[in-house]
Amino acid sequence: MTLRAVVSGVGHYLPRRVVENAEFEESLETSDEWIRARSGIERRHFAGEGETTATMAAAAARAALEMAGKEAGDVDAIIVATSTADLTFPSAATMVQSELGLRTGFAFDIQAVCAGFVFALANANALILSGQVKRVLVIGAETFSRIMDWTDRSTCVLFGDGAGALLLEAQEGDGTAADRGILSTDLNSDGTHRDLLYVDGGVSTGTTGYLRMQGNQVFRHAVEKLAATADTAMTRAGVTAADIDWVVPHQANIRIIQGTAKKLGVSMDNVVVTVQDHGNTSAASIPLALSVGHARGQIKQGDLIVTEAIGGGLAWGAVVLRW
Ligand code: UT7
């Protein structure tokens, strides 16, 4: 028997305010046409009053618990992947713990920017496989609208806010690729690329700062690194692209999503795409896509999924799991 971290619930929260591309035409030299053609984005949600990284994360967590038929008290740990925690500290995860009325177990954040959810899944998996926890909420939640420079058209049209959550539970498997749960992980980072995507504020500046990105440089790294990490994870899981039911990629740019699928040899019919409706929600994009893909009836129990992401650092990685 082999211990596996199996998805028993999924949920998400999107802010009430929806902003169409056309809204940016009023304040910037940009167009709906440019944004759609270069990124595939049509609209995004922006957090408003009362909507914070922690409140959205808690709402997504509640939805995942409800689907699993579990209470907050059944959870041993909470991990939030985020680069936009509401305060420098405490962690968004402890705020979620408090929002859920939980005073037991432990909670912490993981910060690997857009790859954060993949890093969080890998860490949650390790906690489960080592026997330290039985049930863990893994959440991706972001309010990137609060680190946007609204005068920078090359970044502010690309990002959005939201949260998604999975409940992972320890279950016994056979140790084969037929098992439900996380089958393999692959994590990477290369800090020499720090200047390609960063926020120009923090404790060293005494400001929150704004996101800065050399988008076309990040783009150059993306397809190659995403396909390589997905390939590594699939090899570790003992599966091939032909076995994959769904690629659930980080939703940054439709051209990166298409290029990666092509390199992997997976049809776009087997890719969950939400970038048109959410924009790039950084660490929230994969759990949002998993939740929306499940709600659409695309992702079903037993499906083999590869999920991959790249972001600031650079940091990138992939996870293969059977739903
Ligand atoms: O999630 C974390 C990882 N991040 C990513 O994966 C993002 C990766 N990068 C991208 O998605 C794309 O590089 C972008 C969508 C950011 C940009 O697309 P691109 O095809 O790489 O365009 P570019 O940056 O090379 O810019 C092309 C032109 C430039 O004008 P010139 O220099 O050719 O005259 C930009 O100034 O488009 C201009 N431009 C815009 N024009 C209208 C940049 N932003 C805009 C805009 N509206 N919003």
Describe the structure.
Helix 6 packs parallel to helix 7. The chain has 323 residues and is an alpha/beta fold. Helices cover 31% and strands 27% of the residues. A hairpin with a 3-residue loop joins strand 12 and strand 13. The two termini are 19 Å apart. The chain has helices at residues 32-39, 53-68, 92-99, 116-129, 153-156, 215-237, 254-264, 275-278, 285-295; strands at residues 2-13, 17-20, 43-46, 77-81, 106-110, 135-143, 161-173, 181-189, 197-199, 211-213, 246-249, 304-311, 315-322. The chain is globular, with a radius of gyration of 18 Å. The strands form four sheets. The protein has a five-stranded mixed β-sheet, with helices on both faces. The protein has two domains: 2-173, Thiolase/Chalcone synthase (Peroxisomal Thiolase, Chain A, domain 1, 3-Layer(aba) Sandwich); 181-322, Peroxisomal Thiolase, Chain A, domain 1 (3-Layer(aba) Sandwich). The model has no long low-confidence stretch (mean pLDDT 98). It binds oxa(dethia)-CoA.
